[in-house]
C-alpha cells in the first residue's frame, strides 16, 4: 500500500458489488488528512453528511467538500451549487494554486463517466494529475494524488481501458471468504509495472489495517496437460559435451589456425611428407580416361 | 569532398569531421569531381546530399534512419522520406516510447529539425529523456561488458572459427559523426544538454492549445487533429520543407513525432466506445497528414494505442493509410512470460506492413518471428529460437498445439540470423557456395573424404558441414558418421 502512497498521479480504485470501495476511499482520505495534506473531495454519489459520517471533527475540518450530489444540474439556482456542473467543478480543481501536497478524491468516477463524455473526462483527469508546474518552469515538488472510485460493472472495456492507460496505480478490490484483497498494479512511467496483492481490512473509524496476505496457491497459466516445450530435444548433434569430449575438442587444431608447425610443414618442400592425402576410390560412374576429350576436335 | 560540406542546421561538428576525413584520405589537394570522389551518402555527383539520408540500394528512394539499425534492416534500409511509420503500442507503452525516442535522438544527431506532438507529456520533457549517442572509443567496451554480463559460464569459451571468415575484420560500430547512417545509443545515459539545445525543434502540447472556454463547433475532424494539422502545415511552410522558400540555405529533413495518437487525450473517442460518432476522424487525419508528408521533405513516426481501439475495422483502415506499420507485443502480464521459448525476450515485434513506393515488389524480409529484448543499454531485435535446427514435423505439430507463434517454416541448417543493434556481426546465412569454397581447404586438413560419399555429403551439405565445421562430436545415429570420417 505504500507504493500507492509514494507515487502521485491517478489512483483508480476499482470496486464491484461484492466488495465496495468507498470505505477504502475514506480510509485513504483519512490517512492523507492525518498527514497534513490538503484534501478536496468531489462528492457526486452520496450526500455530504453520509460521506463525512465516521470521521472525527479534526479530520472533517480539513476536508474541503465540493458537493455535486444535492443539485448537479443547478436547478435550485440558489447559488450554492458549483458553477459549470461537473466539468466546471473539475476544471476549478485544476486551477487551484495553493502550494503543498494535495489529495483529490473523486467520488465517484463512474458518476462522472456517465455524465461527461469520456474524452473530456480523460483530458481533465490528465490535467489534474499532472499538475506540476502551474506557472511553468518550476520543477514539480509536491505530488498531486487523485483517488478515483470506479465501479467496474458499470462500464464496458472501452472506458475502462482508456482510464487504465491514464492511471499510475490501479487497485482492484476482490476477496475470498470474508477477507478483502487488493490487487495493486503500479506503473511508474517508463518502467515495468509491478503487481502485488495485499490483504486489508477497514476498521470502524476508517483506519486501514494491512495484513499479511495468504499466498496464492493456484498458478493458472501452467496447464498440466501440455508439458513445457524443450527446444533442444530432437537435435542431431550434441550440445552438452562431457569433460573428455571438451578437452578433445579444444586440443583439436582447426584447419585455419595457422600454427607455426603447420607453417613449417607447408614451407618445407618434402615430397614424401604430404600434408594432404586424397584417397580416391573410383566409382562405377567415374571416367578415368586421362586424355583430353578436346583432342579429337580438328581445331 | 565538396558534397560533404553541406552541413545541416546547427551541427557544426559535421563539417569538421568530414573535412578531417577528407584530409586524411587524399594525398594531393587535387580532387577529382565525380561519383567516386564524394561521400558515400550522395547518390550521384550533382545531387547535394542531405545530412543523415542515403538512397536506398534497391530503388534509389531517399531513406532516413529510424535510430535503430536493426529496425532499419528489417524495413529495407530505413524509413523513406515522405512516409509514416506507425508503431502499434504495447500494453503499457514502455517499448514504443523507446522507439519514439530513438527516432528523435537520431534526428538530433543528424541535425534534422524535430516536431514533437503529444497530448500527455510536454515535448520539452520528452526531449530531455533522449538516450545518449555512443561514441567511438568506449562503445566497444560497453558492448562487450554488456554481452558478458548475460553470458552463462558455459558459453564463456570464445568460439574458435575454423573458416576463412576468421581473418575478416569485424564490423566497426562507427563514430558519432553524421557521415554514418544509423547510430547507436546508450539507454542508461541521457543525451547531453548542448546537443539538444543545438537542435531545432518545435513542440505541440495539446492541453496548452486547448482553451476550455472555446466553443467548438462540430466538425468532421476532431479539434485536436485540426490543430495539429495546422501546426504541422505551418512549420512545413515557414521552414521551407516543401520547397516553398527556395532561397533558404540547405535542405533539411523534418522529423515529426506524434505520441499516443487516437487516445482520448486528443479528444478522439475511438478508444472509449465501439460505435463512435467521429469514427472517421482519425483516418481523415492520417490521409491529410500523408498529403502533407508526400509534398515535403519529412518523415513521421506515430505511436498509437491500438490495443485500446474498440472497433477493429478502424485498425485495419489505419494500417492501410499508413506506410510502414510495426507492432509491438510485450510479454508483461501474459502467459507467454513463463513460456520457456520466450524466456530471453521481452516481447515480439511484428512488421505488419512495408510500403511499395515507386515499386512493384515489396521489400519484405523473410524473417517472420522476431522478438525484442531490452537490455540495460540496448534495445535488440533478434530472431526467436535459434534451436529450431532439425526440428521435424512432429515437433512442429506439437508446438502449434501449445500455441506458440514461432514460425513453422522449416528452418534447416545454419539460419543463425541475429540482427543486433550492436557492433558485433557474424556472417549471416551460410550458403552452399561458401561450403563448397571451403571444401578445398578442408581437404588439406586431416579429413578423409571419399568421392561417392563426398557427393552424398554435399547432398546433405547442411547437416554434415555443420558438424565438420563446428567440430561438434556427433551423437550416435547421426548420418554424418556413416559417410564421413571426422578427426
TrEMBL record, chain A:
UniProt pathway: tRNA modification; 5-methoxycarbonylmethyl-2-thiouridine-tRNA biosynthesis
Keywords: Cytoplasm, Nucleus, tRNA processing
Location in the cell: Cytoplasm; Nucleus
Bias-annotated ranges (Acidic residues): 283-299
Chief subcellular location: cytoplasm
GO cellular component, one term: nucleus
Keyword tRNA processing tagged: yes
Biological process annotations from GO: tRNA wobble uridine modification
Pfam family, one: Elong_Iki1
Homology family: Belongs to the ELP5 family.
Name by which UniProt lists this protein: Elongator complex protein 5
Species, as recorded: Nyctereutes procyonoides
Taxonomy of the source species: Eukaryota, Metazoa, Chordata, Craniata, Vertebrata
TrEMBL record, chain B:
InterPro entries in the record: Elongator_complex_protein_4, P-loop_NTPase
GO biological process: tRNA wobble uridine modification
Domain of life per record: Eukaryota
Keyword terms: Cytoplasm, Nucleus, tRNA processing
Gene Ontology cellular component list: cytoplasm; elongator holoenzyme complex; transcription elongation factor complex
Biological function: Component of the elongator complex which is required for multiple tRNA modifications, including mcm5U (5-methoxycarbonylmethyl uridine), mcm5s2U (5-methoxycarbonylmethyl-2-thiouridine), and ncm5U (5-carbamoylmethyl uridine). The elongator complex catalyzes the formation of carboxymethyluridine in the wobble base at position 34 in tRNAs.
Family: Belongs to the ELP4 family.
Description of how the protein assembles with itself and partners: Component of the elongator complex which consists of ELP1, ELP2, ELP3, ELP4, ELP5 and ELP6.
Protein's name in the database: Elongator complex protein 4
Organism listed in the record: Nyctereutes procyonoides (Raccoon dog)
Source organism phylogeny: Eukaryota, Metazoa, Chordata, Craniata, Vertebrata
Amino acid at each position: 500500500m505504500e507504493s500507492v502512497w509514494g507515487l502521485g498521479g491517478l489512483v483508480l480504485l476499482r470496486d464491484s458489488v461484492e466488495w465496495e470501495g468507498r470505505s477504502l476511499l475514506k480510509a485513504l482520505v483519512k490517512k492523507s488528512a492525518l498527514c497534513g495534506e490538503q484534501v478536496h473531495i468531489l462528492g457526486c454519489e452520496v450526500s455530504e453528511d453520509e460521506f463525512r459520517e465516521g470521521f472525527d471533527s479534526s479530520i472533517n475540518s480539513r476536508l474541503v467538500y465540493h458537493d455535486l450530489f444535492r443539485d448537479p444540474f443547478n436547478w435550485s439556482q440558489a447559488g450554492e451549487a458549483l458553477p459549470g456542473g461537473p466539468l466546471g467543478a473539475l476544471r476549478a480543481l485544476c486551477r487551484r494554486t495553493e502550494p503543498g501536497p494535495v489529495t483529490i478524491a473523486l467520488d465517484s468516477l463512474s458518476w462522472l463517466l456517465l455524465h461527461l463524455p469520456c474524452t473530456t473526462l480523460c483530458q481533465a483527469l490528465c490535467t489534474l494529475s499532472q499538475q506540476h508546474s502551474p506557472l511553468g518552469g518550476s520543477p514539480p515538488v509536491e505530488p498531486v494524488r487523485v483517488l478515483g472510485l470506479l465501479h467496474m460493472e458499470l462500464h464496458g472495456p472501452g472506458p475502462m481501458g482508456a482510464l487504465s492507460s491514464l492511471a499510475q496505480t490501479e487497485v482492484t478490490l476482490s476477496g475470498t471468504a470474508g477477507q478483502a484483497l487488493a490487487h495493486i498494479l503500479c506503473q511508474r512511467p517508463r518502467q515495468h509495472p509491478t503487481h502485488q496483492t495485499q490483504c486489508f481490512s477497514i476498521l470502524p473509524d476508517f483506519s486501514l489495517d494491512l495484513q499479511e496476505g495468504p499466498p496464492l496457491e493456484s498458478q493458472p497459466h501452467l496447464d498440466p496437460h501440455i508439458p513445457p516445450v524443450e527446444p533442444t530435444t530432437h537435435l542431431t548433434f550434441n550440445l552438452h559435451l562431457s569433460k573428455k569430449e571438451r578437452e578433445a575438442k579444444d586440443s583439436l587444431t582447426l584447419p585455419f589456425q595457422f600454427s607455426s608447425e603447420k607453417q613449417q610443414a607447408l614451407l618445407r618442400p618434402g615430397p614424401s611428407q604430404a600434408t594432404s592425402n586424397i584417397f580416391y576410390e573410383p566409382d562405377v560412374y567415374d571416367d578415368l580416361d586421362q586424355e583430353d576429350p578436346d583432342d579429337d576436335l580438328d581445331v | 569532398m565538396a558534397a560533404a560540406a553541406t552541413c545541416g542546421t546547427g551541427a557544426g561538428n559535421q563539417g569538421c569531421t568530414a573535412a578531417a576525413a577528407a584530409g586524411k584520405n587524399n594525398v594531393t589537394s587535387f580532387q577529382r569531381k565525380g561519383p567516386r570522389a564524394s561521400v558515400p551518402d550522395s547518390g550521384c555527383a550533382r545531387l547535394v546530399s542531405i545530412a543523415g539520408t542515403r538512397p536506398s540500394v534497391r530503388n534509389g528512394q531517399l531513406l532516413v534512419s529510424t535510430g535503430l539499425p536493426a529496425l532499419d534492416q528489417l524495413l529495407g534500409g530505413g524509413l523513406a522520406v515522405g512516409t509514416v511509420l506507425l508503431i502499434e503500442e504495447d500494453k503499457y507503452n514502455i517499448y514504443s516510447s523507446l522507439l519514439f525516442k530513438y527516432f528523435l535522438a537520431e534526428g538530433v544527431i543528424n541535425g534534422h529539425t524535430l516536431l514533437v506532438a503529444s497530448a500527455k507529456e510536454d515535448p520539452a520533457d520528452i526531449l530531455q529523456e533522449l538516450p545518449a549517442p555512443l561514441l567511438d572509443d568506449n562503445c566497444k567496451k560497453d558492448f562487450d561488458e554488456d554481452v558478458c554480463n548475460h553470458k552463462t559460464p558455459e558459453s564463456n569459451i570464445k568460439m574458435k572459427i575454423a573458416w576463412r571468415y576468421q581473418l575478416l575484420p569485424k564490423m566497426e560500430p562507427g563514430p558519432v559523426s553524421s557521415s554514418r547512417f544509423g547510430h547507436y545509443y546508450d539507454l542508461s545515459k541521457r543525451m547531453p544538454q548542448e546537443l539538444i539545445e543545438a537542435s531545432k525543434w518545435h513542440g505541440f502540447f495539446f492541453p496548452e492549445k486547448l482553451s476550455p472556454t472555446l466553443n467548438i463547433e462540430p466538425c468532421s475532424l476532431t479539434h485536436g487533429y485540426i490543430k495539429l494539422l495546422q501546426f504541422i502545415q505551418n512549420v512545413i511552410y515557414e521552414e521551407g520543407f516543401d520547397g516553398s522558400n527556395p532561397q533558404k540555405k540547405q535542405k533539411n529533413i523534418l522529423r515529426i513525432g506524434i505520441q499516443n495518437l487516437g487516445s482520448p487525450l486528443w479528444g478522439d473517442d475511438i478508444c472509449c466506445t465501439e460505435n463512435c460518432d467521429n469514427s472517421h476522424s482519425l483516418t481523415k487525419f492520417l490521409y491529410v497528414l500523408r498529403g502533407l508528408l508526400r509534398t515535403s521533405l519529412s518523415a513521421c513516426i506515430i505511436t498509437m494505442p491500438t490495443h485500446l481501439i474498440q472497433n477493429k475495422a478502424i485498425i485495419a483502415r489505419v494500417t492501410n493509410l499508413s506506410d510502414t506499420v510495426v507492432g509491438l507485443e510485450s510479454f508483461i502480464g501474459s502467459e507467454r512470460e513463463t513460456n520457456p521459448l520466450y524466456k530471453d525476450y521481452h516481447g515480439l515485434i511484428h512488421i505488419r506492413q512495408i510500403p511499395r513506393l515507386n515499386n512493384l515488389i515489396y521489400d519484405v524480409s523473410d524473417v517472420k518471428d522476431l522478438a525484442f529484448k531490452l537490455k540495460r543499454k540496448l534495445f535488440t531485435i533478434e530472431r526467436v529460437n535459434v534451436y529450431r535446427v532439425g526440428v521435424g514435423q512432429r515437433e512442429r505439430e506439437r508446438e502449434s498445439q501449445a500455441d506458440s507463434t514461432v514460425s513453422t517454416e522449416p528452418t534447416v541448417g545454419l539460419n543463425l540470423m541475429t540482427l543486433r543493434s550492436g557492433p558485433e556481426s557474424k556472417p549471416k546465412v551460410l550458403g552452399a557456395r561458401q561450403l563448397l569454397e571451403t571444401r578445398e581447404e578442408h581437404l588439406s586438413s586431416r579429413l578423409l573424404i571419399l568421392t561417392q560419399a563426398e557427393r552424398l555429403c554435399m547432398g546433405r551439405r547442411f547437416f554434415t558441414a555443420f558438424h565438420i565445421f563446428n567440430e561438434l562430436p556427433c551423437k550416435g545415429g547421426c548420418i554424418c558418421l556413416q559417410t564421413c570420417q571426422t578427426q
